[in-house]
Amino acid sequence: MLLLLSCWCAVAQVPAKISFQAVLRNSNDQLITNQTVGIKISVINSINQALYAERHTTTTNANGLISIEIGGGDVSSGSLDGIDWTKGPYRLKTETDPTGGFQYLIRGFTDILAVPYAFEANHALVADSLAPGRLKIGDRYQGGIIFWLDNTGEHGLIVDSITHGAKWNNGINRFVGAEANGIYGGRRNTDLILSAQLADAKGGYFAARYCMRNGYLDRVPYEDWYLPSTIELQLLYQQKDLIPDLSTNKSYWSSTEREDWVDWSIAESLDFTNGSVVQAEKGTEMYYRCIRSF
């Protein structure tokens, strides 16, 4: 069994709950759809000690997707509120029983990329003043160029130094659940797009697949690139004058789509002429820039 994991948050304070999604596939790479599964989630530290654990019983949707809130399950040990997030890094350990019980045969791990709360978008405007003498926006760093820093000046987002062009998908137009729209949200979206489109596509590359699977040799070992969410693109747009090879008269793909759209052939893009969000056909060839976090 294969478990594709993704974790993100959507509030601006330390949360009581953390949103979590995963896509489940079997050994034949088929989605586990419309099936009750049992999930155990643990927050573990660098020595694999579980600081908090809880259990959930939930049901996959038609895309094999589960959605739960960490902090809303049956607690088996520890306290989520009692974790000192400044003492990280931490990881999420997931254990899954695809029959809905407590025989957890599938295990997976995913990093928690920072203190698990969303940072305000205007941090990008003040990051340099909060981190004098440290990294700054526009620096070449870890395979790309820094375009956003958090308020510590030690973590942020990096954009690839080269503009590429591709379609959003290379297969069937359908909603894949890539609705995250915040800092680090593009990573979760890219996981979901990749899972769905690799099953749909008959060869060839699309933007999310390129970012995840096909890096340049000079970017090694930094291979954790992803297609940015719309808000991440807006942060990049704010720093467009500091980023080389950005075409300011073109639109760039984001990884964000919306379930409430009637037409599932649409995803969001950002017009770098004026910074406006534009709906675009997923089959359209369009510019994109891969990003990663550090």
- Indicate the radius of gyration in whole angstroms: 19 Å
Please mark out the parts with pLDDT under 50 across 5 or more consecutive residues, or reply none.
1-15, 114-133, 214-219
Tally of helical runs:
4
Percent strand? 25-35%
Provide the spatial order of strands within the biggest beta sheet. Answer: 6-4-3-7-8
Task: Specify the overall morphology.
Answer: globular
Q: Report helical residue fraction.
A: 10-25%
Structural class: alpha+beta
Number of strands: 17
Average of per-residue pLDDT values: 78
Overall number of structural domains: 2
End-to-end C-alpha gap: 30 Å
- N to C succession of SSEs: EEEEEEEEHEEEEHHHEEEEE
Oligomeric state of shown chains: single chain
Sheet bearing the most strands, described?
5 strands, antiparallel
Describe the structure.
The protein contains 4 helices and 17 strands. It is 14% helix and 32% strand. It has a 5-stranded antiparallel beta sheet, with no helix packed on it. The protein has a 4-stranded antiparallel beta sheet with strand order 9-10-11-17. By secondary structure, the chain is α+β, with helices and mostly antiparallel strands.
Primary descriptors:
294 residues, 2 domains, 4-stranded antiparallel beta sheet, 4 helices, 5-stranded antiparallel beta sheet, Immunoglobulin-like, alpha+beta
List the helices and strands and how they pair.
Blueprint: E1 2-7, E2 18-25, E3 36-44, E4 50-59, E5 65-70, E6 74-78, E7 91-97, E8 106-111, H1 123-130, E9 140-141, E10 144-149, E11 156-159, E12 164-166, H2 185-200, H3 207-213, H4 230-238, E13 251-253, E14 266-271, E15 276-281, E16 286-288, E17 291-293
Antiparallel strand pairs: 1-2, 2-5, 3-4, 3-7, 4-6, 7-8, 9-10, 10-11, 11-17, 12-16, 13-14, 14-15
